[in-house]
Structure prediction request, 691 residues.
Amino acid sequence: MKKPLIKYKKTIYKNNKKKRNIDAIISRRYNILIALVIILNIILVIGLYSIQVVNHSFYLEKYESLNKQLVEGSTAPRGRIYDRNGRLIVDNVPIKTITYKKISGITTKDEIELAYKLADVLDMDINKLKENDLKNFWIINNPTLANAKITESEKTKLKSREITDEDIKQYKIERITEEELQVFTEIDKKAAYIYTLMNNGYYYDTKILKRGEEISDYEYAYISENLANLKGINTELDWERSYPYGTVFKSILGTVSTSTSGIPLELKDYYLAKGYSLNDRVGVSYLEYQYEDYLRGKKNIYELSANGNLTLSEAGNRGNDIFLTIDIELQKAIEQILEEQLIITKSEPNTEYYNRSFVVITNPNTGEILAMAGKQIIWKDDGYKIYDYTPGIMTSPVAVGSVVKGASHIVGYNTGALQIGEIRDDSCIKIAATKEKCSWTYLGSINDITALKYSSNTYQFRTAINVGKGYYQYDSPLKIDESAFDIYRNTFNQFGLGVKTQIDLPTESLGYIGNSRQAGLLLDFAIGQYDTYTPIQLSQYISTIASGGNRMKLNLLKEVHSSTNDEIIYINEPEILNTVDTKEEYLDRVKMGFREVITGGTGYGYIEQQFNAAGKTGTSQSFLDSDLDGQIDKETLTNTFVAYAPYDAPIVTFTVISPDYTHYYNNNSYQSTVNKRISYEVSKKFFEIYQ
Prediction:
């Protein structure tokens, strides 16, 4: 009986020992847990102490920053534009503006309430409110009544996607009656108009509610003082471009988009890629577009707090200022001369198709354009009106005539088709089955200098035949090596004819380059009556001759100044695009001929002898469709003149073109001298200013 008892006691002992071990383990784990809790509490207390006491300011700023939003102001004022002498020609004038920008979390109800607050203060022209906008406002304010206008059938179609939400909205608008709209008072309509303005365009855009002279001093002051109660509303000073010289050179200065239009659709991708917003005001044409990167201002940056308050975070600044190569006083005088001569010329006989002239003045050593102007006159029943046509200098090619004979001489010299001092008879050229090709009069035996002086056509014809390796016999067929066209064009290109001048403007025409390679057309090419060139190309041509064969890049930008400290941040250095591949003695020979043109040749009287100039005249035949029936029916003459002065040390070039200056027909008894008069007055005015 004892053995089972002993066994039982041993079992109890083992169980008690096991229990004690378990209790010890539990006790140790409990103590560890208590220690961890105490440590975590200590860490928490230290952390709270650090946040609330030690680093209180740091975390407070973090908290506030999370509840603030950075908001850009409206487009900053652009840089100013000055002429070469520092005369201001484009400025900004401040314009008071009331704007709205959606803030985070704002609801439609909030916006409607805001619109009514503004309607009590702002005088708005409710005639600008469109009927559909008013109906949309009615739908927003009467959702139950609006929804009742949709049938169950239409709701079913919407669910099955047979119609869209936009269709439903349109049904509601169409079914609103005049009686329902008559409940709107004038205040309601003002609020509707303001609400519409607040929601026009993209969600994130800054919307202009009122601007300029439309804003009274009271309205501007009241809104400014109550911005805290008008969430999203702000008052700013916007700007507009102003022009101290009025319309002088304005077309080339370019234009800027308006506050309401923002980035033009056709330029959207270009400007968005450069980091612009869709509502930014940007340069959209000519110099404003070309130098947008310099002229663009830096916007104000505001902090928008959770309670709707706006505070300036980072001040913006006006864009950089650009200085042009243009002398605005010379430009003004040139434009006046053109306008006067247009009026005089239109009173002369045989000028019924003449309506425009161009002038370009450059420094041949730097490529700087000192003045460039084009004017067009349109006659109407009640008189005439003169328009600016300066962009036509880059975009209106004409057949320029004999002014290109300097380049044609270089082709002859370079290829051996013409020798210095070579004497030729000025008799007419006759190719089989074509009319005779003659000079304007028979000039007898002439050399290369007198051929330029008196503008011989046949002298150039014979050079062209030689370049084309042709054999000429009177009234016989003429065959030439067609590569002669390439030889001529390659040389002309080196002077700037038939290629872009790379003027710093976004638009430039190349001119017409003929496709046919008939022998007779090569002869026409040599005297400037086949391919066509723009006035700016012709200007680069005479500048290349004046500079000794260096084709300078033509430019309108002189330098850029910082608007913050007036430091020069960019200077447009002269750039040689290429040098004409010829001998110096050949260019000197052309210059001698051009000098003779002015002293006693076809250019005598175009410029005063005291200015010691050299140059070349040109006359070409042009053809018009006078009645716009698709048929060429009128022949006219175009007159051109290029010159540089002084002959021995050029500082200026003149290019003057008058297309269709005379209605031409056989035995024409009168030809206008408009181009000669313009050239004389323009060159005289230049030296009045610069001597």
Observations:
- The chain has three domains: 2-66, 71-79+92-242+298-321, 332-421+434-690.
- Residues 2-54 form the longest helix (53 residues).
- The CA atoms of residues 230 and 503 lie 50 Å apart.
- Residues 2-66 form one domain.
